[in-house]
């Protein structure tokens, strides 16, 4: 982000054992679905019940009981989004309101999203799991001197989730699992005055949070199983440096904290082996986005810095897929999903562009040996065009400083993933 007429302090972020840099998110809101290249090849349909490799740990800890050997999965997904803003902004000047072009193209960068999962048997009934991945992320940055920067010129959220899970098989039908998660997060949000690109409000920081998850797997038969998983919400507090403008219009630097809600989610998944070669699977996912109401920072010296109202609603995702065994060594996968946006029409913004989207996925799996297999996946996400209208007062409470944005946002994406799976 280009900053003029103000000094922006550098904030040093710690190096992570595994660096996750998700770009514009591919599930609803700023939620990430990319924890498995195998699952991506079927649009993540039935993910909490299939358990075809260790990456199931990212969705349902209870499904670990289907593994009688040490299982390892490691993969990466490449995300290439195409996100564009079209519209105009009206800004106040000494001579009256002026209308400016506020279009911005390719505002989300490509990224690599890795994942890792390890499942270890502990006797007959118990299983231990270790995982690393990311469930939330966002990367939107407007060009320098963007005419609508007052509505947000950068929104960047990166998370790393480290998980420890335990599963227990009660009998041949029922298994239960639970896990704890340590979440490291980094975030940056801000906006600029349109006249001179001067920082209006900006906060950049990092922090840790801890959460938990539960899951169960019901195996009606070897052909049919149902998975149910729940991941509890987490409040991630990002602490760091802040820049703002006080009530007298003077720039300031401060320290502060921003509480970011990472909402609860749940998945109900079904797997059914229809024939020896063909399996069908499906999922219904729910995310408690209604808890995401605003972005507001608490500063050490300057009190509350209100960044933006959000007021989202809960979202739903529906996925249907199939797996076809072409030969003992080859599998073909496909899937479709409908992802409902959590953002109400009247709450759409250019800083977190979001809309309903449809997933089209294809994948394949190849068994290299009895222990080693390779999975590949390819997905196109068709994001629908969404109208956006925003209004704000550059100086709160002063009607003469009212500014508006009127236009639309649209974002598609290609995802390509590769994953290796090994049984010890």
TrEMBL record:
It is found in: Cell outer membrane. It is a multi-pass membrane protein. Keywords: Cell outer membrane, Membrane, Signal, Transmembrane, Transmembrane beta strand. The keyword Glycoprotein does not apply. Residues 1-27 form the signal peptide. InterPro entries: OMPP1/FadL/TodX (IPR005017). It comes from the Bacteria. The keyword Signal applies. Pfam families: Toluene_X (PF03349). Transmembrane segments: none annotated. Belongs to the OmpP1/FadL family. This is Outer membrane protein transport protein. It comes from Aeromonas bivalvium.
């Amino acid at each position: 982000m280009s900053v003029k007429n103000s000094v922006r302090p550098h904030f040093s972020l710690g190096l992570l054992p595994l660096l996750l840099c998700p770009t514009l998110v591919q599930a609803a809101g700023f939620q990430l679905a990319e924890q498995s290249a195998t699952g991506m090849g079927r649009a993540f349909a039935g993910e909490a019940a299939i358990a075809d490799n260790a990456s199931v740990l990212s969705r349902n800890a209870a499904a670990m009981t289907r593994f009688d050997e040490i299982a390892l999965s490691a993969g990466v997904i490449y995300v290439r989004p195409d996100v564009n803003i079209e519209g105009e902004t009206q800004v106040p000047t000494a001579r009256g309101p002026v209308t400016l072009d506020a279009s911005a193209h390719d505002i989300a960068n490509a990224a690599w999203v890795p994942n890792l999962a390890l499942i270890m048997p502990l006797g007959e009934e118990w299983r231990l799991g270790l995982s690393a991945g990311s469930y939330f992320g966002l990367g939107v940055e407007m060009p320098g001197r963007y005419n609508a920067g007052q509505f947000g010129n950068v929104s960047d959220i990166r998370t790393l989730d480290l998980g420890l899970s335990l599963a227990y098989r009660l009998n041949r039908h029922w298994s239960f699992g639970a896990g704890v998660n340590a979440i490291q997060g980094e975030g940056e949000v801000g906006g600029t005055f349109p006249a001179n690109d001067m920082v209006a409000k900006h906060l950049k920081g990092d922090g840790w949070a801890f959460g938990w998850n539960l899951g169960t797997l019901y195996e009606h038969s070897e052909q049919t199983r149902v998975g149910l998983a729940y991941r509890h919400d987490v409040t991630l507090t990002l602490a760091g440096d802040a820049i703002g403008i006080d009530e007298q219009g003077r720039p300031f630097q401060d320290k502060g904290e921003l509480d970011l809600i990472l909402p609860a989610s749940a998945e109900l998944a079904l797997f059914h082996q229809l024939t020896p070669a063909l399996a069908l699977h499906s999922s219904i996912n729910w995310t408690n986005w209604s808890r995401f109401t605003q972005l507001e920072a608490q500063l050490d010296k300057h009190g509350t810095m209100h960044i933006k109202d959000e007021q989202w609603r809960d979202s739903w995702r529906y996925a249907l897929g199939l797996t076809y065994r072409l030969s003992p060594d080859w599998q073909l996968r496909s899937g479709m999903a409908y992802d409902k946006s959590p953002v109400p029409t009247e709450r759409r913004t250019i800083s977190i562009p979001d809309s309903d989207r449809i997933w089209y996925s294809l994948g394949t799996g190849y068994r290299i040996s009895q222990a080693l297999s390779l999975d590949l996946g390819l997905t196109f996400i068709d994001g629908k065009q969404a109208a956006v209208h925003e209004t704000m007062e550059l100086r709160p409470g002063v009607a003469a400083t009212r500014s508006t944005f009127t236009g639309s946002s649209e974002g598609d994406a290609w995802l390509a993933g590769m994953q290796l799976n090994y049984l010890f």
